[in-house]
Amino acid sequence: MNGIRRRRGRCGQVFRCSERGQAVVELAVALPLIMTIVVGGLDFGRAFERQVKLQQAVRQASSTVSTTSTSASAASTAARRIICVQLGFPATCTNVTVSVAFSRSTSALGATTANPLATATITSTVPWQTLVPWPMLTGDGRIDLSATSTYSVLQGR
After folding, report:
1. pTM of the model
2. What is the pLDDT of residues 25-44, one digit of tens each?
3. Which residue, of 6, 26, 70, 77, has the fewest CB within 10 Å?
């Protein structure tokens, strides 16, 4: 053996028994970090998708309301219905906050009595729940997502 003696461990292998315990310790240290990154990525993706859907719904609602509505109450009802349906809720949902500023003007530039300028500004807020409560970011895991859109159009053209 060329004068070199190798020391054998308890398992009969040359220093291999302790490596198995080392792998378990490394896994115990790395697994929480890996799971935090994975779940955080899922939560971020879900929040981003909901924010994009909300923005599209508010944009659609402001366009439709300013084109078809004739009063503020009709505009508010239509906007709530459009936003709720676009987000996948029932048409009469109560968990979505919708505020509508609607105006019609016959004296604005280009407007006439037959073709008034209608402007709708819609702001909507929807609560969103994370998969895991992130105490340093959200406290209880709830985040309010909001979007605003303004649309003006000459009605009747």
Report:
1. 0.78
2. 889 999 999 999 999 999 99
3. 6
